[in-house]
């Protein structure tokens, strides 16, 4: 069965679920079925994966916790000031290409197939795991951040006067959670992983992504087998609870230190291949295109170094009083080694004091006491360096999609 065949089958599943949903536009389904040359008849074949949906994001998005951008919601950094190391689900950012599907864990199956598995099973006769079977495999916990490749994108325009396309995130498209699940390596080995496997591609059960009128199929991105076997988790719990629908229920990937798109949510199938795999998410998107990059672009994998204050954008502080500024820094290369803060436009820098844990795949919290001398407008800057010596530059080379803004962010505050 070719790729169009898979999409057709998926569409049947979606239509079957659609009978019980009233949110996701039936028009989209019709348009999609027309583009695939299929008859969009109700009650087509029946589904093994029951999927429905009723809105882009299901959890509440109160304005004091989130800034909403279409199908995405950014965490407000001031909402992290009084929470601990982990970001609670009620304020964890959401990045959806389309919308949050509701997946029924009882009928859900994880299907593995492809030429990188023993006997090269096809999608018609895949190796399957039920939710129960996955939960019965040896479990591990992992405290790690998920961060969108576009986190900080708005600063290409805001600080460098460069135009980029995509959601204009500030720094709130990141969150640390404690994930629990089974190692992807465990599942791959049980499914018959061979030595010739090179790529592993998880595929989401959310609706196909349509961009510029073109249906790009389900959200999916190949992962090299080396990373897949290293520290990747198939997670079914987040902060001690079953994964919430918006964050990938019943099962998502958590690919530590890599850009968020690697951490595919609502995984329905995984292709394991002995030849390299391609999808729009590693050929068209999530590559760096720009003057300092090769014409075919540079593939994005690991995240950069970033820092954020747990402070509202444009916060007001009173002059002459001591304020304890707090924030967090993280890096895709490993632990954060040092953080410095400047309150005078970058002229002088003083060390921030690290507080609590500083895990390699998560972040380092810190604090910095500041007594603003006089009323006026100030910009605060925080700059971290990590174990590899990587730090945050003042200017980031431009790329057209505005990925990996690892520069020092100028955070405006008003002292009154
Ligand atoms: N199936 C699927 N997985 C997905 C996405 C998606 O739209 N569909 N978005 C990706 C992107 S771009 C990011 S940044 C993270 C966001 O994870 P979160 O919504 O749990 O914060 O999920 C990734 N996994
Ligand atoms: Mo993302």
From TrEMBL:
<dbReference type="InterPro" id="IPR008335">
    <property type="entry name" value="Mopterin_OxRdtase_euk"/>
</dbReference>
<keyword id="KW-0500">Molybdenum</keyword>
<keyword id="KW-0479">Metal-binding</keyword>
<dbReference type="InterPro" id="IPR036374">
    <property type="entry name" value="OxRdtase_Mopterin-bd_sf"/>
</dbReference>
<dbReference type="InterPro" id="IPR000572">
    <property type="entry name" value="OxRdtase_Mopterin-bd_dom"/>
</dbReference>
<feature type="domain" description="Moybdenum cofactor oxidoreductase dimerisation">
    <location>
        <begin position="322"/>
        <end position="395"/>
    </location>
</feature>
<keyword id="KW-0560">Oxidoreductase</keyword>
<dbReference type="GO" id="GO:0030151">
    <property type="term" value="F:molybdenum ion binding"/>
</dbReference>
<dbReference type="GO" id="GO:0020037">
    <property type="term" value="F:heme binding"/>
</dbReference>
<dbReference type="GO" id="GO:0006790">
    <property type="term" value="P:sulfur compound metabolic process"/>
</dbReference>
<protein>
    <submittedName>
        <fullName>Sulfite oxidase</fullName>
    </submittedName>
</protein>
<dbReference type="GO" id="GO:0043546">
    <property type="term" value="F:molybdopterin cofactor binding"/>
</dbReference>
<dbReference type="InterPro" id="IPR014756">
    <property type="entry name" value="Ig_E-set"/>
</dbReference>
<dbReference type="InterPro" id="IPR005066">
    <property type="entry name" value="MoCF_OxRdtse_dimer"/>
</dbReference>
<dbReference type="GO" id="GO:0008482">
    <property type="term" value="F:sulfite oxidase activity"/>
</dbReference>
<feature type="domain" description="Oxidoreductase molybdopterin-binding">
    <location>
        <begin position="97"/>
        <end position="281"/>
    </location>
</feature>
<dbReference type="Pfam" id="PF03404">
    <property type="entry name" value="Mo-co_dimer"/>
</dbReference>
<dbReference type="Pfam" id="PF00174">
    <property type="entry name" value="Oxidored_molyb"/>
</dbReference>
């Amino acid at each position: 069965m070719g790729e169009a065949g898979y999409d057709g089958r998926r569409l049947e599943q979606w239509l079957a679920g659609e009978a019980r949903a009233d949110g996701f536009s039936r028009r989209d389904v019709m348009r999609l079925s027309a583009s695939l040359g299929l008859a969009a008849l109700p009650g087509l074949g029946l589904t093994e994966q029951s999927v429905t949906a009723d809105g882009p994001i299901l959890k509440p998005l109160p304005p004091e916790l989130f800034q909403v951008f279409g199908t995405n919601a950014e965490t407000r950094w001031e909402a992290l000031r009084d929470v601990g190391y982990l970001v609670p689900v009620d304020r964890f950012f959401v990045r959806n290409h389309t919308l949050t599907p509701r997946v029924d864990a009882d009928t859900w199956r994880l299907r593995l197939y492809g030429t990188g598995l023993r006997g090269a099973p096809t999608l018609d006769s895949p190796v399957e795991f039920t939710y129960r079977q996955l939960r019965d495999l040896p479990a591990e916990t992992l405290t790690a951040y998920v961060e969108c490749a576009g986190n900080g994108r708005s600063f290409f325009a805001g600080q460098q006067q460069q135009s980029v396309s995509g959601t204009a995130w500030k720094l709130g498209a990141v969150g640390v959670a404690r994930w629990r699940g089974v190692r992807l390596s465990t599942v791959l080995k049980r499914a018959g992983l061979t030595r010739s496997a090179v790529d592993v591609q998880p595929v989401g059960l959310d609706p196909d992504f349509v961009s510029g009128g073109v249906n790009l199929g389900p959200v999916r991105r190949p992962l090299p087998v080396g990373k897949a076997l290293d520290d990747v988790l198939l997670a079914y719990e987040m902060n001690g609870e079953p994964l919430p629908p918006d964050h990938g229920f019943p099962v998502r990937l958590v690919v530590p230190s890599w850009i968020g798109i690697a951490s595919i949510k609502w995984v329905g199938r995984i292709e394991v291949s002995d030849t390299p795999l391609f999808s729009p998410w590693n050929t068209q998107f999530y590559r760096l295109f720009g003057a300092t990059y090769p014409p075919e672009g540079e593939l994005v994998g690991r995240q950069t170094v970033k820092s954020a204050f747990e402070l509202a954008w444009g916060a007001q502080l009173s002059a002459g009083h001591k304020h304890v500024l707090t924030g967090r820094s993280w890096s895709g290369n490993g632990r954060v080694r040092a953080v410095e803060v400047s309150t005078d436009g970058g002229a002088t820098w003083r060390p921030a004091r690290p507080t609590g844990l500083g895990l390699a795949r998560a972040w380092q919290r810190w604090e910095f006491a500041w007594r603003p001398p006089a009323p006026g407008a100030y910009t605060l800057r925080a700059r971290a360096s990590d174990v590899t010596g990587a730090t945050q530059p003042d200017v980031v080379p431009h790329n057209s999609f505005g990925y990996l803004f690892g520069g020092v962010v100028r955070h405006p505050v008003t002292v009154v």
